[in-house]
Amino acid sequence: MTGHRIDVALVRAMPVVFVLIWSTGFIVARYGMPYAPPFKFLLVRYALSMLCFLPWIILARVRWPQTGAQWLHLAVTGMLMHAGYLGGVWAAVKAGMGSGLSSLIVGLQPVLTAVWLSSVSAGVPGQSNQVTRRQWAGLLLGFTGLVLVVSRKFVQVTPGDMVNVRNLSFALAALLCITIGTLYQKRFVAPCDVRSANTVQLGAAAIVTLPLAFIELEPIRWTGELIGAMTWSVLGLTLGGSSLLYLLIQRGAATSVTSLMYLVPPTTAAVAWLLFDEPITVATIGGTLLTALGVSLVVRPARA
Questions:
Q1: pTM check: above 0.85
Q2: pLDDT tens digit string along 127-177?
Q3: What is d(CA 123, CA 168) in angstroms, rounded to the nearest whole number?
Q4: Is residue 126 included in any domain, yes or no?
Q5: pLDDT digits over 88-125, tens only?
Q6: CA–CA dist 128, 105 (Å, integer)
């Protein structure tokens, strides 16, 4: 009975731990980007993460995916959720976007996920019908909150916390990749061991990232800050955060899992203010609250 209670407690703690770990990803990007180009950093991160997983897989005799289709589906999710999502976020931060804003933009993922699921299930027996008025109101509020924060940064430039067409495009690309990747994984990826699944995903992400890293002219400077960022990226974010996300998607509904993302922006903004002195203005607070409210309206279950 005691062991069962511990298992239940661990499962219940997974979402909280995931939010705390995931929030640090934007901080680590800001922390390490002055010393490395984004795709070279990520390529090393993928390689080191695979080197951590492989001995674990061999010693524990973990089974690999059993079919070619499963390998393919895992590779697609790896390209979307590792190469596409992380590449977009890290490139946006490298191009001058602040940690708080990048997390706020990606925090719109639950809105996109819920609206997409509601749209594709319209008319399907036993499924949600269509996007409700409440959900459309939530989508509008979330977008309004994002515009409120972004518009100030276009005209009020702060080093390390500015918005331009380039870094905004990177962040929006990351948002689309994490949204599509989550939906794809929930739909096509059959349950398998998280260690072997993550390794396949990381290998696919490395293949996509390799040519982008090759054309980057800036070298990696192995400072103490960069080593710290790389260490946490591998051990905390990939082995911990990405594995938890995989497990959460397999265990729950895609909308419920992605609703956790709306807790990430305020957590990231608070840490970025403490570490990097990124300003938290009235517009930032108002935009974050509007975005969180919009997301909650979209993902909240309808009354019976």
A1: no
A2: 444 567 777 787 778 777 777 776 666 655 565 567 888 999 999 999 999
A3: 36
A4: yes
A5: 999 998 888 877 778 778 877 777 776 776 666 555 44
A6: 26
Dihedral (CA of 215, 220, 225, 230) sign? positive
Supply 304's token pair.
Answer: 């019976």
Residue whose tokens read 């051990």: 235
Between helices 38-60 and 194-214, what is the axis angle to 10°?
A: 150
Domain around 105: 11-299
Residue 146 included in any domain: yes
Domain count, the chain: 1
Show Cβ contacts of residue 255 under 8 Å, excluding neighbours closer than 6 positions: 110, 113, 114, 117, 299
